[in-house]
Write a structure and sequence with these properties.
The chain has 249 residues and is α/β, with parallel strands linked by helices. It is built from 10 helices and 8 strands. A hairpin with a 3-residue loop joins strand 7 and strand 8. Helix 6 crosses helix 10. The structure holds benzoic acid. Benzoic acid binds next to loops.
């Protein structure tokens, strides 16, 4: 069965445009060249794929969300629904790019095997995603809300936030030379942490009723108010990004 994932592209763009705005340095690190073929893993609505194409490369975007793939296509990007855990490509791309997606993939070894297989020899893999310590308080708030309400069921953490040492080793074990890898703490202001939970906690709360979800949000907000809120700065999300550039040998 094909895995898919449901996102509302308009809500996502309205509340999280910072995700692609903050990723321009990752596009700089990719340094796309005229005529190159680039795979964008987790292309979303195609915003960053368009930036890569503006710099002269041709992009194929893949995403688990049919709605996002549709948006990407409407923006002129070639795109298809596919999972990094089942990529149908062999030695096709000069570079593979990914922003804010790989922390959703628990099967990180399989993802790296597929990325290596899809790249041509000498091809580069440039990505940024949540690294060790990412969104610590948000994840803790969710865990505590589930603990306090056994009727919510078990909290299953769907995210993978590796350390640079762990991820470097995995890449090297799969034939990559890691040229750069770094954790980047990124305190990010957010107007409404409730919206963040609606958009990003959808996977862990999909089974909750509407009333339970409201209770879940209230519980999380109570905890988060003490940890990531101040009158002066408002809500500030405690992101930590792992940024990496590796070359397939
Ligand atoms: C992130 O983009 O860093 C993120 C997304 C979902 C949960 C936690 C963090």
């Amino acid at each position: 069965m094909q895995e898919t994932n449901s996102w509302n592209p308009d809500e996502y763009k309205k509340h999280t445009s910072f995700v692609s705005e903050l990723a321009l340095p990752v596009v700089d690190l990719l340094d796309p060249k005229v005529g190159e073929r680039v795979l964008d893993l987790g292309c979303g609505d195609g915003t960053l794929a368009q930036e890569i194409e503006r710099r002269g490369a041709k992009v194929l975007g893949v995403d688990l969300s049919e709605e996002m793939v549709q948006k990407a296509k409407e923006s002129g990007i070639e795109a298809m629904v596919a999972s990094v855990t089942a990529l149908p490509f062999t030695k096709e791309f000069d570079a593979i790019f990914s922003n804010a997606m790989l922390h959703w993939v628990k099967q990180s070894d399989l993802a790296i095997v597929n990325i290596a297989k899809a790249l041509k020899g000498g091809g580069r893999f440039v990505a940024e995603f949540g690294g060790e310590g990412n969104a610590h308080h948000l994840v803790k708030a969710m865990e505590l809300a589930f603990q306090k309400h056994p009727e919510f069921g078990e909290f299953v953490n769907p995210w993978y936030f590796p350390s640079p040492a762990e991820y470097k080793k995995k890449l090297e074990n799969n034939g990559f030379k890691v040229e750069y890898i770094e954790l980047i703490p990124r305190q990010t202001p957010m107007e409404d942490v409730g919206k963040w939970l609606e958009i990003f906690a959808n996977g862990v709360t999909a089974h909750l009723s509407k009333e339970q979800f409201e209770l879940f949000k209230d519980e999380c907000k109570k905890y988060l108010k003490e940890h990531i809120y101040s009158q002066m700065d408002g809500w500030v999300i405690d992101y930590v990004r792992l940024r990496v550039k590796a070359v397939k040998l």
